[in-house]
Structures are given as structure tokens and as C-alpha cells.
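Feature request, filed as a ticket because there's no other form

It would be nice if the structure record came with a short human-readable summary line next to the C-alpha cells. Right now we just get the raw output. Example of a typical job, pasted below so the devs can see what we mean:
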Amino acid sequence: MADTVNTKDQEELFGHPKGLFYLFFAELWERFSFYGMRALLTLYMVQEIFKAIVERDAATAVVYASYGSLVYASTVIGGQISDKILGMRSSIFLGGVLMALGHFVLAIQNDIAFFLALAFIVVGNGFFKPNISTFVGALYKDGDVRKDSGFTIFYMGINIGGFVAPLLCGWLAYEYGWHYGFGLAGIGMLTGLIFFWSGIKKNVFGDKGMPPSQEVYEKKVLGIPQKTLIPIVAFLCAPIIAYLLSSWEQNYVSGIFKFIGFAVLAYLAYIIFKLDNEARKKLIMAVLITFFMTLFWGFHELSGSVITLFASRNVSLEGIMTASQTNALNSMFIIILAIPISLLWGYLSKKNLNPRTPYKFGLGLVLAGASFYILSISGASADENGMVPFAYLLIMYFIISVGELFMSPVGLSKITDLSPKNIVAFMMGVWFLSSAFAFQIVGFISKQLAIESTDVNVGGLDTLEVYTNGFELIAMYSLGAGLVILLFSPLMRKLMGNVH
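Raw output as currently delivered:
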């Protein structure tokens, strides 16, 4: 398929391809569904699914980590199937249908339905998430100067969805019941699908996103065309994933990721050994960047688990928001800070003072550590019931959001710059997998800070010290990692060679 844009098919709106705005709304509503559900997930498991057992926090930690890991790992498989067989349109639509199904099944009050719903979301996300971002890039010609601003508009949709969803779904769940909150997340996903489908019907995407080969798309395997077989297999994978998620005591998913991690590192060591000196140094740096990002996301993603439980049990939220709604704070700060920080990098570039990637990553981890330090000292301001002021949570989210903007936007582009051309796709897969491994860190930390109690409403002075001591440890590890990176940044700059 040609890379050039068919101008007759590509209508414009506000100086961008019209298709961008259909993808913007499709992604906004998909992220609305994803973050709306995530805001409720940990509290729902603790208060409903595992309420009958003493180790409810530990069980919740394992399921949440396994779900998060599989959600991100599925994008590697979904991206490959799209590239080779389905194309972006069919993949996005299939993913959207499966995710909508998952969200609506979540609205059924049943334990089996709960795990099956999570499994549908895992499989659906694998097809949807990697392809919609790629589709945005496909709307522009190579070298089109509008591409960066197009992605900025698109990513704003992600954060609007991430901000609004916890507020609305959290309110519905609090006022009317969990399943109304989950149901609204499903409606959000369905709305995203309708936007995408209407874009296809109006031909706003031109010839973009079609299967790479119609012959491969129609090719029969076991007597069934691949375009039909893949949705069937995707659907049949859901019960297997549901079983893995429900077997929290055995924690099969953690074992699978340990094996994957070992295999990836062994393969990377083999590639590094074969490369020439210059390429070897750059690839080592790409691996280090991925490791640092995994560490950051491992701390950051605690927002949906331990920090939500801390907000529920130990933060004075009366008259402000519910514990699930606090999940909106990160996206709120990203929306507020994204443009100022982007302008800051532009200003520093003109002055030739823009810090290179290792310094940004070091500062990002230092900021993550500082944010957890704020939570660790909140206990000193607790009232007689063990509840701390909301301001601590607000400041924590502000600081970690700044850290995110230091690290996340530059990471992906640096992976493509530093990786040898013949393994860029593999390294992109490793980059996506890093988020999956981050959830294994989330699971480990969440289990360490699990509260064992027969009281489903445990909190206050019974939980405060466990959380503040845990946050202090996280702060030390994150600050330590950030300071090590800053210390070795001059050496890392040499490894990066001519890549900024």
C-alpha cells in the first residue's frame, strides 16, 4: 500500500485529516471505558469479589497485577496479527466489540462473569490499543510536519477520557451500585465503536487501515477464512485467560511473565553480543531506558491499586470525591501540565539547555520518589481516626504527573532511534511488554502492603502505618534509582552516541 495520502479521500478539518477526529473520539471513549472500569476494579474486588476471605487485599493484588500484565502483553500479539493479516480497521473493530462485551459482562453480578469480563477486555485491548495509535500515524505522509500536533490532539483525547471516566463511573457506582458504573464504561466503549464505524462509512480514512493483503485476509485455514477464524480464536481465548485470572492462589500469570522475561533478556544478550561496538552501545542504552520506564510505571500504576485503597481507608474525602474518583487526578494534571512542559523543552532547546534523555529519566524517577515521600509523611497530619488531609494525595499526583511528562513522551521515540533497524519491531514489542512487567511490580508491592482483616470496612488507624511505611520504602527505592541514573548520566550519554 502506498504511503502517500489520497487527497481526494482525505478530507481536512482544522488543518488535519478528518479521520484524525474520528480516531480522537473513538480513543477518547475507549479510554473512558478502560479508566472508568479501572477506577472501580480494586475496590470492587476488595468489597465484593473477595469480601468473604481474610486475604482479600492479597487476592485483589494478584488479580489486578495479572489483569494489567495481560492487557499490555496482548498488544504485542494483536499488533502482529494486524500487521500480517487483519489490518488496522478490522483489528480496531474486533477489539472494540470484545472490550464492549467485557464491560457489559462486568455489569452482571457473578464471580464467573467477573473473570470472563476481564478476559474479554484483555483480548479486545490487544487488538484495539496498538492499532488505533498506528492508524493516526498512517493518516499523514512521511515527513508531514502536522504529524506531531496530530498526535498531541489524539493524546489529549486519551487524557480527557482518563479524567472524566473515574469521576462519572465512580459517582454512579457510589450512588447506585457497582454495576451501573461498569455499565457506563461499557456504554463508553460502544460510543467509541460507533464513532469509528461512522468514520469508515463516511470514508474519512481514505484507503488507510485495510488488510495488508486481501489474499492473506481471505486465505482459508482449517476451511475457514482467516478474517473469520481470528475473531473465533480471539473469542475462545477468553475462557482460558479467565481461568488464569481466577487461579490467583497459584498465580500462573506471574510464572508466565518470569519465563517471558528470562527469554527476552537471553535473546537481547545474544543480539548485543553479535553487534558492532557502536550499535551495541546504543542497544544497551535502549534496554536501560526500557528498564527505567518499567520501574517508573511499576510505581505509577499503584494508583489503581494500593493508592486507591489508601484513599478509601485513610484519606479524608468527605464532600470532595470518592476513592475511585481520585483516579481522575493523574489525567487532570497531565491535561494541565502537558503544554507548559512541552513549551519548557522548546524554550530550553533554543537556549541549548534541553536535558538529554538520561537526565529526564533520572529526574522522572526522583519525582516519583518525592511523590511517595509526600504520602509517607502524611501520617503525621492524621486525625484521631487515622485519616489524612486530601491535600497530600493531590500534591502526590501533581508531582508524579510531572515525572510522567519527563519520561513517557521521550521514551518511545528513543527506542526507535537507538535500536538497530532490523529489530525495531521487536524492541517496540519489548517496550509494550515493559508495561506488562510493571504490573508485576505493582502486584509484588500490593501484596507486601496487603491488609489482612475479617472487616471489609477496615481502615483508619488499623491501616495507616502499613501504608505510610510502605510508601516510605517505595520513595527510597525510586529516589535511589533516580539518583543512580543522574550519577551515571554522562556515561549513558556516551552510550547514546549521536542520539539526543
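Something like this underneath would help us a lot:
The chain has 15 helices and four strands.
Residues 244 and 252 are 6 Å apart (CA to CA).
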